[in-house]
Amino acid sequence: MIRRQRAEETRVYGENACKALFQSRPECIVRAWFIQSVTPRFKEALRWMAANRKAYHVVDDAELAKASGTEHHGGVCFIIKKRSGISVQSWLNKAGEEDCVLALEDVGNPHNLGGIMRSCAHFGVKGLLIQDASLLESGAAVRTAEGGAEHVVAISGETFGDGLEAFRKAGYTIVTTSSHQGTPLYKAELPKKMVLVLGQERDGVSDTTFENADMSVAIEGTGNVESLNVSVATGVLLGEWWRQNKA
């Protein structure tokens, strides 16, 4: 029972991440640790935890590093209950006529995932198709997102390919990216309703995903480096989608 409970929980740390989480879903907080210097900025959270009998501890830096598992804790750490992803159909049931969904194929680095969620939040992209929703709940990813994780919903299909196909059947254009092939981004007309697919940095999206896409775009540059970091590329791509469809 205890092992199962721990599997359903995760640690989140960082001041902005924890503030956003408390504002968005306080009911998921199980326990918290703070260093004294941040407590004035968490008065509302402390009152809520006391009123709802949630355990919290004011500790020194060394104790918080031990509790959070990192020295980069930002003065606060929550143990929370993990969110689970929603199905593609659940997302489609509420989607509007203008919708950009981000799909990540084999992207697992938590710092990249955090940067990606931050860009999604900035440009209003709320749906993120990913096979393992728990990757978006890791402490490093949530901290790097600086509050952006609370504005993103994980979507999961039976398989990654099945998820993309379900979106296509619902009228979405499947758009992949490539360093070497595809229409130059700033010459492309990005659809109002699309799934933007990005892959892991070394190999990009799989051959199958690339071949089955409706459209491919490339971010042109000097060629001095092979490609952009996947989180940086996400920001560039979503920024252009926003410019064309929202600005």
UniProtKB/TrEMBL annotation:
Question: Which SUPFAM superfamilies does UniProt cross-reference here?
Answer: alpha/beta knot (SSF75217), L30e-like (SSF55315)
This protein's UniProt keywords: Methyltransferase, Transferase
InterPro entries in the record: Alpha/beta_knot_MTases, Ribosomal_eL30-like_sf, rRNA_MeTrfase_TrmH, SpoU_MeTrfase, SpoU_subst-bd, tRNA_m1G_MTases_N
The residues the entry assigns to the signal sequence are none
Annotated GO MF terms: RNA binding; RNA methyltransferase activity
**Any one cellular-component term (Gene Ontology):** cytosol
Q: Name one GO biological process term.
A: RNA processing
Question: What's this protein's name?
Answer: RNA methyltransferase, TrmH family
Q: What organism is this sequence from?
A: Cedecea davisae DSM 4568
